[in-house]
Amino acid sequence: MHQWVEGSFPVLIMGEAGTGKELLARALHHLGPRKEGMLMSIRCGSMSEEQLDIELFGCVASHLPNAVADRKGIFELAQTGTVFLEEIDQASPNIQTKLVRMLNEGEVRRSGDSVGRKVSVRLVTSI
User: Fold this and answer.
1) pLDDT tens digits, residue range 87-126?
2) Are 114 and 63 in contact (CB under 8 A)?
3) Extended beta strands in 19-61, E state
4) Nearest residue to 122 via CA among 81, 85, 77
5) Which of 49, 73, 104, 113 is deepest in the core (most CB within 10 A)?
6) Maximum CA extent, the chain
7) If you ran DSSP here, which 8-state letter would residue 16 be given?
8) Residue 71, by phi and psi: left (phi above 0), alpha (psi -120 to 50) or beta?
């Protein structure tokens, strides 16, 4: 089970379009203990399930046509920082299940891979 430390608790921001949810996510990052790490964001509603899976969790090269190297996902790239997922309610149940697993275990598994990779990021989401 993943151990929570200050500044790593996941956050859900709710509000109507145009109310400043992204601004609040940026403030949480820049005013928190993870401000030295990267802040990366993805709008979940604008991608297919497969695209979002690869963007979030990464992919081994053999899983992508014409790829010559494995691809890191946003959680690996934002290590020690913050990941902001807009429109998380638009993500498929499969993706949401993988996110819960990542939060519980503190690791991600790239598509096509059998090895998990430890990650330490703060997850901020919005609906």
Assistant:
1) 999 999 999 999 999 999 999 999 988 889 999 999 999 9
2) no
3) 39-43
4) 81
5) 73
6) 42
7) -
8) beta
Tokens of 59: 């992919």
The rounded Cα 76 to chain-centroid distance in angstroms is: 9
Helix (H) or strand (E) holding 108: strand 107-109
Backbone angles phi, psi at 115, to 5 degrees: -110, 130
Cα 28 from Cα 44, distance rounded (Å): 20
- Residues 85 and 42 sit within 8 Å (Cβ to Cβ): yes
pTM of the model: 0.89
Closest CA to 121 of 9, 44, 1: 9
Write down the residue that tokens 């819960």 correspond to: 100
**C-beta separation of 103 from 2 below 8 A:** yes
Q: Using CB atoms within 10 A of its CB, is residue 124 exposed (0-12), middle (13-18) or buried (19+)?
A: buried
